[in-house]
Design goal:
By secondary structure, the chain is mainly α. The protein has a domain of 183 residues. Helices cover 77% and strands 0% of the residues. It contains twelve helices and no strands. The protein is globular, with a radius of gyration of 18 Å. The protein starts with a helix and ends in an 8-residue tail after the last helix. 45% of the residues are buried.
């Protein structure tokens, strides 16, 4: 599958998953909802590996890196993002998500010793300017307070974790580990970490009963995780974490197009 097809697949799926996410909110804790998502996703990948008889034996040092991807990209990134959205408007989250490209550029240079590609930085800057122009009316409503500062800090840590997971993934994949096996193990490690966190949290663990929750969970697990992350990791391997992160820009524009549908959903809070 060529880069253009992979890119389009990521954008189309992630541009719509935020509608599905609105049906996940309020039924149980964020960590438990995400854990269920990766339980389903890793099960799908595991079954595929068994049916296709793909090799699952990998060196210990690769498992350590895949566990790090599970921690940073699939666990901390999503959990902190859910927490941040409780404090700041979606327009700010959209703007801050653009930072992933810049962080990827710096981390690739620092950890992977890859050169900084000027065209990536210039393109990211033009994209950032476009996002700012798009959401100027929303930013005019924002006033700085303790809650906003907390949300901004949590969001930044979330996107830094995402970039960390991106760069580690690039290291794993360019070293020869196949995408499917890497995602299977990384999502499995994330699932275990999230289930442990859910059980360790104070309060009763609530099992969702709403049909819409499980239908949206199925879409998020199969399309948002198995297919979209599979395509994204292929892009990351073929293009590098800096260029692959351009998916963020186009996904934001698609979310903007889906905004009328989100506004029609009670409790929708994502862009």
């Amino acid at each position: 599958m060529n880069n253009a097809t992979l890119f389009a697949l990521c954008c189309l799926i992630w541009g719509s998953t935020w509608i599905a996410i609105t049906y996940q909110i309020g039924h149980t804790s964020e960590t438990f909802a995400i854990a269920l998502r990766y339980l389903l996703a890793s099960a799908c990948l595991g079954i595929y590996c068994v049916i296709r008889r793909l090799p699952l034996k990998l060196p210990l040092h690769v498992h350590v890196k895949m566990a790090a991807v599970g921690l940073f990209l699939y666990s901390l990134n999503y959990t902190l993002l859910y927490m941040a959205q409780a404090h700041i408007i979606s327009a700010l989250l959209a703007l801050m998500s653009s930072c992933i490209i810049y962080i990827n550029v710096v981390l690739r240079r620092w950890w992977l010793k890859e050169p900084i590609r000027k065209e990536v930085v210039i393109g990211a800057t033009f994209g950032l300017a476009g996002i700012i122009c798009l959401f100027v009316p929303e930013f005019s409503k924002v006033t700085m307070d303790a809650a906003l500062a907390t949300g901004l800090a949590i969001a930044f840590v979330s996107f830094f974790c995402a970039s960390t997971g991106n760069v580690i993934s690039e290291r794993i994949l360019t070293s020869g580990t196949p995408v499917i096996q890497m995602n299977f193990y990384a999502m499995s490690y994330a699932m275990v970490l999230l289930f442990i966190t859910s059980l360790a949290m104070p309060g009763e663990l609530i099992i969702p009963t709403d049909t819409a929750f499980y239908l949206s969970l199925l879409y998020l697990a199969v399309f948002g995780s198995v297919f979209a992350f599979g395509a994204y990791m292929k892009l990351l391997k073929q293009m590098g974490a800096d260029k692959a992160a351009y998916v963020c820009w186009y996904t934001l524009w698609l979310r903007w197009l889906f905004l009328p549908f989100l506004k029609a959903i009670p409790g929708a809070c994502y862009l």
